[in-house]
Amino acid sequence: MFLRALEWKGRSLRFLDQTRLPREEVYVETEDYRDVVEAIKRLRIRGAPLIGVAAAYGLCLGAFEGLKSEDFFSFLEQVDHELRSTRPTAVNLFWALDRMRIVWSVRNVSEDWEEVVDRLVAEAKAIDAENALTSERIACFGATLFEDGDRVLTHCNTGPLACGGWGTALGAILWAVHKEGKRITVYADETRPLFQGARLTAFELLKSNIPVTLVCDNMAGFLMSQGHITKVIVGADRIAMNGDVANKIGTYTVAVLAHHHGIPFYVAAPLSTVDPEAQTGADIPIEERDAQEVTTVGGVPIAPPGITVRNPAFDVTPSSLVHALVTEEGIVYPPFEEKLKILKKKRRGGHGSIC
Amino acid sequence: MFLRALEWKGRSLRFLDQTRLPREEVYVETEDYRDVVEAIKRLRIRGAPLIGVAAAYGLCLGAFEGLKSEDFFSFLEQVDHELRSTRPTAVNLFWALDRMRIVWSVRNVSEDWEEVVDRLVAEAKAIDAENALTSERIACFGATLFEDGDRVLTHCNTGPLACGGWGTALGAILWAVHKEGKRITVYADETRPLFQGARLTAFELLKSNIPVTLVCDNMAGFLMSQGHITKVIVGADRIAMNGDVANKIGTYTVAVLAHHHGIPFYVAAPLSTVDPEAQTGADIPIEERDAQEVTTVGGVPIAPPGITVRNPAFDVTPSSLVHALVTEEGIVYPPFEEKLKILKKKRRGGHGSIC
């Protein structure tokens, strides 16, 4: 039913180049971790959960290459560093690489390099599988927030392409429609500058036969003022312990608009997105990307040469504007801080499929 | 200093094709009113005040052609109808054509067709000249709202290209900088779908040596949350008697954001933009434009084929979110209704240059 964004092929990683969608479905298969680094940087692989899985497999590719190097562990250190340097905001990247690091860098690690590689591949597969189950749980829980007839606005892309499995915010909509038979209409923000909403969310919803209307980001307020939106759901790239949410640029604007119109604003994300090091949104680094993403579209310039540009890739929505967080452990309502602490401490893994 | 958006050449109209900016400065000179109709529809000529002036000259071109027809006045009726059908929201179009209509259609109009044409040309020139003076007064009054060091967000394009003369909202900024020596930094929303902010506002400000930073529409909230914006000023396409403002899609979102952050939100527009027939914003028709404006950029598709799209060209900002209206008669503060009534009744025309 869904495009497979990422697939481990034993010694190589096959991934869909999401920058080419929806015009072309181009798959890249590579044994070189540098291609994974480049793909994450260029958003060929994107979506916070998927970035985590891709980084884990990227480290595996690096490990295979490291077997041929003089110092396997120094090589892995370098690979880890390059993968961590791709994108600063989505914490799932660091979370996945931290899990991988436990396999290869803690004391008493095996000196049998081949064995370490096997363990790394096993761990990456575990992260991948867990991610799919996690997104299934998020989708299932999130679906309960919707009623028959809802008209839901979403921003950016949070479906199977972004997460593998069902997806997070979009996964909840897909589940509500396909598993629960609710009739839901989706309004998809196009999501400038890279049009993930127009290119990917619209594409996934069309493929899923869910009614979807594409709008420019600046039309969401108009739609709300006209009563066209009943709920908003988005994903997250990093969540602070107080419930502040970093997500794709424009999310904060949507949250303010929802607040102004009394429309519930939900965030769906795995607990791996919650960063115990970030007490509030102010602790979350915001990636600033290249000006060219704003000044050109598909190679066509839309601004005068030499113009100064701001291009923050994310913004922070304060927890006061968030009605609920949908996680794989259930729906969390404000105040978030104590509940997130408990959930983060809870032993993770081992969930079977539910619902 | 500024590009000339429109110029009457005696028997023809020369205009800048604004859809080609900033890449190319292409001027079109035509004797055919149908080219003016097409240019307004396609936004080659755009900006509420400029549309009014263009329609007046368009009617003159039609009148010249009408001299060759069997029924001059029926022909003018047809030309008037076609010009009125170009765009529904900007009221300056109807205001200008109403003024022209007084010249050609009231009782006891001369049966000397040539004389009527002369009078029409004179009236169009008067509208043009008055428009320039009006925009000068708006710019001058609006400039008083700014202080040295202000960082001003604007949406869409409201400078010389949109208005002739100084412009309205952007005119106030230009005046504050160039006539009053205030240091002002401008943040320009790109203004999807047609990028008037990126293509035109950024271009005009660069030409004027005013520091300008281009952002996507969905970044305005982030900028405000970070304290980067001290004031917002925009133009208007139609203002209801209660002060509700129809302006380029996305304006309402900016107004809600400004309100949420306690940032003053100003609207600058000529009194011809105030529609005595519209009691509130609900009485203002909102133009819905072609889906292709959203789904393609410069011919490049950015969404899957067959996607459903909403493309309202305008939205309505309720007067409760407007801190002041800048008009050619001065700055109007809320409550607006009584003051707008008085200003609309006041005898107009005959203003000399001020400030």
Write down the Rg of chain A.
20 Å
- End-to-end gap of chain A: 19 Å
Q: Tell me what portion of residues of chain A adopts beta-strand conformation.
A: 15-25%
Largest sheet of chain A, if any? 7 strands, mixed
Number of helices of chain A: 12
- Uncertain regions spanning at least 5 consecutive residues of chain A: 347-355
Question: How would you state the average pLDDT of chain A, rounded?
Answer: 94
Oligomer: homodimer
Write up this protein:
Two copies of one chain form a homodimer. With 355 residues, chain A is an alpha/beta fold. Chain A has helices at 33-41, 48-66, 72-84, 91-105, 113-143, 160-163, 169-178, 196-207, 220-225, 251-261, 292-295, 337-345, and strands at residues 6-8, 13-16, 27-30, 151-154, 185-189, 212-215, 231-234, 238-239, 245-248, 265-268, 296-297, 300-301, 308-309, 314-317, 324-327, 330-332. The first copy, chain A, has a seven-stranded mixed β-sheet, sandwiched between helices. In chain A, a hairpin with a 2-residue loop joins strand 11 (296-297) and strand 12. Residues 347-355 of chain A have low confidence and may be disordered. At the A-B interface, helix 8, strand 6, helix 9, helix 10 and strand 12 of A face helix 8, strand 6, helix 9, helix 10 and strand 12 of B. Strand 6 of chain A pairs parallel with strand 13 (308-309) of chain B.
